[in-house]
Structures are given as C-alpha cells and as structure tokens.
Amino acid sequence: MRFWERRNRCLWMAVAALLFCGLTAWAQNPAPAPATPAPAQATPAPAQAAPGPAMDTPLDVKAAQPPSTDELAKGDPGGIKTGTVSDVVAADTKKGLTLADIVNQAGQNRIAINFVWTLIAGFLVMFMQAGFALVETGLCRAKNANHTMMMNFMVYGFGLFAFWVCGFAIQMGGGAPYSTLGVINGLSSEYTINLFGKTWGLFGTHGFFMTHGGAYDVGAMVMFLFQMVFMDTALTIVTGAAAERWKFIAFAVSSVFMGAFTYPLFANWAWGGGWLSQLGANFSLGHGYCDFAGSGVVHAVGGLTALAVSLIIGPRIGKYDRSGKANAMPGHDIVLVLTGCFILAFGWFGFNPGSTLAASGNGALRIGSIAVNTMLAGCTGSFGAVLYMWMRYGKPDASMAGNGLLAGLVAITAPSGFVSTVGAAIIGVIAGVLVCLSVEFLERIIRVDDPVGAISVHGTCGLWGVISVGFFADGTSNYGGSWNGVNGSVTGLFYGDPSQLVAQLIGVGTLVGFVFAFSYVANWLIDVIVGQRVPAVDELQGLDIPEMGALGYPEFVLREEAEMGVAGD
Amino acid sequence: MKLVGILLALAGWLLPVVALTLTQSLMARFILTVVGIMITLIGILAVLNKAHLQHAIWRKG
After folding, report:
1. What is the C-alpha to C-alpha distance for residues A388 and A408, in angstroms, rounded to an integer?
2. CA neighbor of A140 nearest in space, from A459, A399, A440, A439
3. Contact A193/B at CB under 8 A
4. Whole-prediction pTM value?
5. Class of A107-563 per CATH?
6. Residues of B with CB below 8 A from A536's CB?
7. Where in the sequence is the domain holding B7, given as residue range(s)?
8. pLDDT tens-digit profile of A418-453?
9. What's the Cα-to-Cα distance from B55 to each of A59, B42, B52, B58, B60, rounded to whole Å?
C-alpha cells in the first residue's frame, strides 16, 4: 500500500515538474514584435492634402439616410434604425448638424464608454466586500460570526469616509492628466521635494472632500469611486488576520487611519505620479514601479498592515500550547468560504480589466487579455494549492483550495496588463504553492496567528505579484504608447529588460520597509491609546455578545473548544 | 527590541533608495536592493517578532 502511495506521489510530482518545465519553456519564447502604435499617432496628415469641410458648416444629413418619423413610429424590432445620424446632438438646432458636432460626439462617446466601463468595474469591486465577508466569517468560529461580519460590513463605511475626507486627495490629487477619463486637470497638484537633483513626488494636494482644487468634476468622481473600492479592499484584508480578538473600536480607528493615510500614501507613490512611478523617468529603471491593478498597492499594503496588527495583538487563546506548538482552529462554515471565493473571483473581473480605466482608446482593448489572465491565474493558483496539500497531507484541503484561488488572483493583479497567458498561468501556480508555504511558515516557524490566511494570500502573494512583473512582462502592451512617462511597453527580465526587475524590487523594499513600519507605528499608538485586544474572558466567550451585543447564530448551541479537540492552555 | 526591529525595517528600505542616487550600475542597485529587503525582513520577522513572542499569551500560565 505504501508503495502505491509513494508511487502516486512520485507521479504527481513528475506531472507537476513536467508541466512547470513546459510552461517555463513557453514563457521563454521570444515575444512577438512590439505592438504598432495607434494609426492616429503614427501618420500625420500630409500637408498638401485638400482642406476638408469647415467644422461649422452644416452637413447634408439626408445623405446618411436617417429613418423618417413614420418609420420610427413603427418601432425598431431589428435594432437597425436606432442610433443613427438622427441621434447626434446639434449644438445649434437652427443651424443643423455640423462636422464639429460629429467630432465632439465622437470624443464624448469615447469618454462615456470609459466612464461606464470604469464605473461598472468599480461596482464589481465593491461587491468583493461581500466575498471577503463570507470568506472571513466562514473561516472564523461561529461564536465570532457577528463580530467578523460587522467588521467587514463597517470597514466599507469607515474607509469611504476617510478616503473622501483626505485619502483620495493624497493619492490622486497630483497625478493628472488621467487622459482616459477626460484629463481631470483639477487633480494636478503634487507635493514634491528635490533631492540629489531629482524630483520626488510624495503626495497629492488637490481633491479634499471631492470639492477642493477642481475635484468637483465628472471624471474625478468616476476616478474616486474606482479608487475608493480598491482602497476598501486593502482595508478589509486586515480584519481577517486580526479576527476573533480585535476590539471593534480599535478596528474602527485603525481602518479610518489606513484609509486616510497609509493606503493613499503608497498608492500615490505608485499610481498618483509619486516617486516610485518615476523610477523609470528619473533613474532609468524600466518603466518605474509597475503595478497594473494593485498586487502591491492594494494587497501587499493590506497584507503587511495585517501582519503589523497581528504582531501587536498576538495569537488567539488556544492557538498555541505552552511549548509553542500550533493547534488547528477550524472555521465554522466551508460553504461560506468557497461561496465567498467565487464572489471574489467574479469581482476580480472588475479589479484587473477595470484598471485600464478605459474600454476605448489608449490600447484599452487589451481588457480581453487581462480578463483571461485573471481567470487563468486564479485557476492555476487553486491547482497549485490543491496539488501541494494533496501531496503533503493526502487530502485536497478545501480552505486552502480557496486561498490558492485568491493567491493566484492576488499575484496576477500587478502583472495582468503586461503578461501573456502562459506567464499568467505560471505566476498563478507559483502563488498557489507559495500561499501554502507561507501559511505554514507564519503558523509554525514565526508563530503569527492569522485565522484566515490573509497575510499569506495578500501579503506574500501580493509581493510575488509585484516581483513577477519584473520577470514576465512581455513587452506587448501599449497603453497609449508609454507607461509612467517612459515610451514603449513594460518589459521584464525574461524578455530583455533587467532594470524593470530592480524597479519592482525597490517597490517591494518600500512595501516591507516603509509601509509595514508606518502601519506598525500607527497601530502601536492605537494600542497604547485605546487598546487593540479584547479581554481574555470576552475572547473565550466569543466576541458576538461582548463586542456586538448579539449572537450571529442565536439558535445555535455553541460548544466549548475543548469538546471540539482544540487544546487550550 | 521592538524599536530596533522597526529601525532595521526602515534602514532596509532606505538603503536601496539612497543607493539610487549613489550609483548608476544596475547590478549594484540590484544587490543593494536585495540586501535592503533582507535587512528589512530580519528586522520584522526576527527582531520585532521575537520581541512580541517573549510576551505571547501562550507563554503565560
């Protein structure tokens, strides 16, 4: 029997090794020729061309054969009479339709498509809050269900408020122009310092309360909504790692601080025109720090803050015995967990493809590739985690399958806009294995208690996602011909640009060095002022009654840990 | 010890940032960045975490 088990394991390992080698070989293939620039940029109109019609000359719209009033009265079941020249709005109805009207309509249509795309993507990301709530609550014990759910619910409001007051201004207040959403010139004031002959952008100064400095603008509102739901995703990561022992008041203060300062500061450096994004322009490091949809900005910031809070509040009672041996504390509902994972995977289609902030122009049609990369990395992430758990423990663990899916999705978030499908698959499978190793390392080696695996999923795999851009970016993306002010496409080490890897590593250093330290100090102060951890008696009872005043499941009979085989002190 | 851990984390971050201005060599920047990340990780996972574990709830009777 043992022979067969061993043989099976060898077989699994051989299949995995072959798959990995094959995929790596595929990834090393030379990239296709760089994308050709958009025709509009490539060929200016010849100087000797005949002058076109004046922009303000009325056009003969009859030539376009618009449907008559009688025809329209009959209805349009085939959809061929709706959306014609009749629907183009003339600025001066007496004068009639002019070429200027047509051109303006074309411009507004492009921006409208981008607005709607970005808003819908933002709505999808907002729904991810429900996924996080289900995953975290399912992985916690039933006696903490109300408390865990409430943290996930209220983090939305706390984060939104803080981001509206000052977070958005710090993050995006100096990064304009945002050309896909209509430039938004109001958000163009960055606080900078001059150091060693270079300009270092530190934070934005326009957009407080969404009114200051020209932020009362339709494009700015779209940008705010999209960036706000991203910020909230980072905040909700912390609630998972600190679950079952975090004071609600401390959670509230910590979340407001993170939404107002920690997240926006790093997001400004990466996305708002700050110094990390300028590493390419200022120091010739590839295209600067590149984080397409936020493996670093969202997930690593959330994961590292989760690590800081977990260190401060310490492990749950009963997680470790007196010798330091870890005890399993299983969650109460795996159905919630896997349903939540599916909701998150669905929401990720807003997260990554939506980060183009456009569906029209600027190379935004790459959204199809980004969506496929996203689903593929999630798939290979769960595959990697299941394979690891199966080989190591003999069973395909359900919660780690879910975490593997999320790990793959987290890891592909930064590179999703720059890599091929083969790169995405490799990034995902590595993340799936990495999350299992990280969970074991945190739990058994450094003894950090993380009930849901948030630090591993978002912190570890977020950092891996950032690094992976430096390896796998294939140089085929073309978002308007440049990225972070550097012409050409983002290209990683495997495709010929080692300097991009260094830029990514400096981003990683900033995340683990600065962001962690900043979060740690802030949460240490909160610990000193209001206290981070609940009293032991409340923790043993479960936080639903002491912290929330009501049980999550009032009709359940909750058993003591000892009855469930969890060894306490 | 906690303060030492945090200072190590910050020092590990500042090393590659300052190195950006001191050298143009890509290899030197790469090495200094990796060294900086290692210093930061030692500060967090070894020094700071060890300081917290000394007072961990499971060590108390």
Report:
1. 14
2. A399
3. no
4. 0.90
5. mainly alpha
6. 57
7. 2-54
8. 999 999 999 999 999 999 999 999 999 999 999 999
9. 81, 19, 6, 8, 8
